[in-house]
Amino acid sequence: MKAPQKQKGDNMKKFIAMIALLAGSTAFAHTADTSWEVLENDPTIKLAAPTVFMGHAVDYTFVCVDGANLRTKKPVAQYDVITIGKNQRKEIYKGSKYLSTPINYSRTSWECDWSVNGKHRTCKDKVISGTYPLTVNVKVYRQLSTKNDYSKYLFTKQLNVPNCQ
């Protein structure tokens, strides 16, 4: 009687292994032809896209074209940071709003140099101009472990920034 029970157990192990193999093979079947919707909704996929500056860095997968501007697809939470006491800071929610930036941008930043002896700093305004591309390359990774954020590069896919709805 022992031999048939062992056979039953071995068959069950083989069945579970086969199911795991099939599930794993379909989960890893993403290619550069896989739709953005499928990739963005797969919790095991990590997208490494360039960013757009809208007061802070915004991932290209989260922007759309709105006339002559790029804007976020959804409103973004806005916070004020207040200081309490000497070392404690607290964020106060102000609401949400769409962020945007011109596709053809020009902004002013400071460019600072230290003098030869390192005691004096001289700063001047510097105008930075450019154009955000409407097609970018996004690296696609499979997240293999959440404990150490270990992932495996799969492929690179072109993203055409969609028009806003």
Describe the overall structure.
The protein is α+β, with helices and mostly antiparallel strands. The protein folds into 2 domains: 30 residues; 104 residues, no CATH class. 19% of the residues lie in helices and 51% in strands. A 3-stranded antiparallel β-sheet has the order 1-11-12. Strand 4 and strand 5 form a beta hairpin. It is extended.
Topology:
Layout: H1 2-27, H2 36-41, E1 45-48, E2 51-53, E3 57-59, E4 63-66, E5 69-72, E6 76-84, E7 88-97, E8 100-102, E9 104-114, E10 121-131, E11 135-145, E12 150-160
Antiparallel strand pairs: 1-11, 2-3, 4-5, 5-8, 6-7, 9-10, 11-12
Which terms summarize this structure?
alpha+beta, single chain, 165 residues, three-stranded antiparallel sheet, 19% helix
Summarize the structure.
The chain has 165 residues and is an alpha+beta fold. The chain has two domains: 1-30; 31-73 and 100-160, no CATH class. The chain has helices at 2-27, 36-41; strands at 45-48, 51-53, 57-59, 63-66, 69-72, 76-84, 88-97, 100-102, 104-114, 121-131, 135-145, 150-160.
Order of strands across the main sheet:
1-11-12
Uncertain parts: 15-27
Give the total of domains.
2
Structural class by SSE content: alpha+beta
Give the CA-based shape: extended
Topology order in helix (H) and strand (E) letters = HHEEEEEEEEEEEE
How big is the Rg?
A: 25 Å
Termini, distance in Å?
68 Å
Number of strands: 12
Strand content: over 45%
Approximate helicity band: 10-25%
Mean pLDDT: 84
The quaternary structure here is single chain
- Please report the number of helical segments: 2
Summarize the main sheet.
3 strands, antiparallel
